[in-house]
């Protein structure tokens, strides 16, 4: 994470807190709303607020003509992962969801060499991926040996699929939408996602109902305005300035925020599987971004090359 400016570090920390707390607010919203309705309200609110932000800032929106790219990003970075996460949290604690979502950098490292040839696999990355996915197995193990593919295991799998979406989308956005104003990127993504998810919610969960409880409205407001609007503005700003790999590392903060809120405010259990799996996943993510393994002898080099390797 070297080379980030103070401003980028501030964006990084704020985004981690915003998105790390989203799992908590999703859990609260699900107490009254079905998953597709919650996602549809969240995305619609975010799209409306982003439109007002763009209008107030007099942002040129000519880039919105690239509808095909926004269709891909709207699916991979909003509609599909939002639904997968919300649906999964019906079956697993919010703290576990935040831990599983922190596997995004692992999937990014796994997929990146296939699309970016110079981003090769290294010893720390291979070991880190192994450690990280061992953590996933630890989280899955109680359900994997007792309930087959039903119950909470399906929630774990849904979260992992959402993580894969989040690993692919920044690579695609960096390649196809680089240079666009972050407000345009977030706006195009959200309106495409809204156009996709609202009709589906209207068919599957008809008749659509609005929340009645103030806490449910607060959850929708947080997810739409703070999580999806402000969060995506920060995300695309970081993506443009530091690239997809470093931006994906924001998920370091998700387990810390998610587990603290889930255990402290929702009385979710903190089992040894959650603790051990979380430590292994975070350790794996740290390893894949290390310059070298501490037990791996460095290559013989001289001068500045040796310093860079260490």
Helix and strand topology:
Layout: H1 6-29, H2 35-56, H3 67-88, H4 94-101, H5 104-115, H6 123-144, H7 152-176, H8 182-204, H9 214-242, H10 244-248, H11 253-265, H12 272-288, H13 303-309
TL;DR of this structure?
By secondary structure, the chain is an all-alpha fold. The chain is 74% helix and 0% strand.
- Beta-sheet strand percentage? under 5%
Cα gyration radius (Å): 20 Å
Class by SSE composition = mainly alpha
**In the residues, how many domains can be counted?**
1
Mean pLDDT: 81
Largest sheet: none
Please work out how many helical segments DSSP would assign. 13
Shape: globular
String of helices and strands = HHHHHHHHHHHHH
Pick out the low-confidence regions. Answer: 301-310
Would you count the extended β strands for me?
A: 0
Instruction: Give the helix level as a range of percent.
Output: over 70%
The first-to-last residue Cα distance is 15 Å
Keywords: Membrane, Transmembrane, Transmembrane helix
Subcellular location: Membrane
Protein name: EamA domain-containing protein
Organism: Levilinea saccharolytica
Overall description:
Belongs to the EamA transporter family. It is built from 13 helices and no strands. With 310 residues, it is mainly alpha-helical. The protein has one domain (6-293, 303-309). The longest helix is centred in the C-terminal third of the chain and has 29 residues, at 214-242. Residues 301-310 have low confidence and may be disordered.
């Amino acid at each position: 994470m070297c080379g980030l400016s103070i401003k980028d570090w501030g964006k990084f920390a704020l985004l981690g807190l915003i998105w790390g707390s989203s799992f908590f607010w999703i859990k609260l919203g699900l107490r009254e709303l079905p998953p597709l309705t919650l996602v549809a309200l969240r995305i619609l609110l975010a799209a409306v607020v982003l439109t007002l932000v763009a209008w107030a800032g007099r942002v040129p929106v000519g880039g919105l003509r690239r509808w095909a790219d926004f269709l891909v990003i709207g699916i991979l970075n909003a509609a599909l992962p939002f639904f997968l996460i919300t649906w999964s949290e019906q079956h697993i604690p919010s703290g576990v969801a935040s831990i599983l979502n922190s596997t995004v950098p692992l999937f990014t490292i796994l997929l990146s060499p296939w699309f970016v040839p110079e981003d090769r696999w290294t010893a720390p990355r291979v070991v880190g991926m192994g450690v990280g996915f061992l953590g996933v197995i630890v989280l899955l193990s109680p359900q994997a040996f007792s309930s087959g593919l039903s119950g909470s295991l399906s929630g774990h799998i849904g979260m992992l699929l959402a993580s894969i979406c989040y690993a692919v989308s920044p690579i695609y956005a960096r390649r196809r939408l680089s240079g666009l104003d972050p407000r345009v990127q977030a706006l195009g993504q959200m309106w495409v996602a809204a156009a996709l998810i609202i009709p589906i919610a209207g068919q599957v969960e008809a008749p659509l109902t609005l929340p009645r409880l103030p806490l449910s409205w607060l959850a929708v407001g947080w997810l739409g305005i703070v999580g999806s609007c402000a969060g995506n503005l920060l995300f695309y700003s970081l993506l443009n300035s530091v690239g997809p790999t470093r931006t994906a590392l924001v998920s370091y903060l998700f387990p810390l925020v998610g587990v603290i809120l889930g255990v402290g405010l929702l009385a979710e259990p903190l089992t040894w599987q959650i603790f051990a799996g979380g430590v292994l996943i975070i350790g794996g993510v740290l390893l894949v971004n290390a310059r070298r393994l501490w037990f791996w002898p460095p290559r013989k080099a001289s001068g500045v090359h040796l310093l860079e390797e260490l």
